[in-house]
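Cross-check.
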Amino acid sequence: MKPSRILILGGTGFTGPYQVRYALSRGHKVTTFNRGKTHPGELPAEVEQLVGDRNGKLDALKNRQWDVVIDNPTTLPAWVRDAAQLLKGNVDRYIFISTISVYGEVKQGVDESAPVEKYEGPDPYKETLEAMKASGYKTYGPLKALSEKEAEKWFPGKALIIRPGLIVGPRDETDRFTYWPVRIDRGGEVLAPGNPNDPVQFIDARDLAEWTIRMAENHETGIYNATGPAKPLGIGVMLDGIKDAGKSNANLIWVSEEFLTQQKVEAWSDMPVWTGKESGLARASISRGLSKGLTFRPLSDTTRDTLVWFKSLPQDRQSKLRAGLTAEREAEVLAAWHKRA
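Predicted model, tokenized:
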């Protein structure tokens, strides 16, 4: 395998550092481009670090050449357009990390041929992250879909689009999976949502990062869903696996989806990972990715490593999980469930 010159846009957030270290371990030369504000000084010394901003401060990318660029943080199509205009002709391939959210609120499982959401707002090239947040992230999927089109427009036949599902593991600041290892580690009665057979899908950030680098090495192009595990998984098996990994004595109390709806407990936000029985977001086809070597580490590894990472954070951060129910709200719902039963 010939070493490549890899430019990573981002590189200091969630998956980026895993990409960097894996690429270096395989002999590649790595350059990052970011604002230099997230986890400064964390990357290995051999990484070339360029400082700039996707909002118009791209001078550091001018007149440089790389074999491949990996675009991690982009949500806005203008970011892809502006970077691609500079990089076109100086980069052989463009890897865009998109999202499975481009499919919208699907009711069935989807493969890569499924239609993506249409953007119906004002000029998408004038959109800002602040406006997207103000909309409750309703434009997130459509804007990602437009960003994909920009990558394919500027790098025809040379673009690789990766659509991850829920990305989990150490360094995840959203706590959308972390909630479960932390909550189950605390023990006692744990509210478990819906039916144990309800499907769930997610991918460890390290598995995603490493597969992305291997796809770059193999000069792959096209569109790929990237979530896991390799075989269908029910949330009951997931929660039992988390219990076993942490040697927890927690008692899972299964509460019906209908009752949770009555209690205004929402899938995904209040009950992370779980999307409910009607959603197709946990049924995405990954056969294409599997055919290209997408692999997954054991759930036990992700669970233990996530807990170790979370417990290394400052105490005030540990006290405020960013997803899931508070202890008080969980106890309230469980009390109502027991009373009804």
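The first helix runs from residue 16 to 25. The CA atoms of residues 178 and 306 lie 7 Å apart. Passed to J.P. for a second look.
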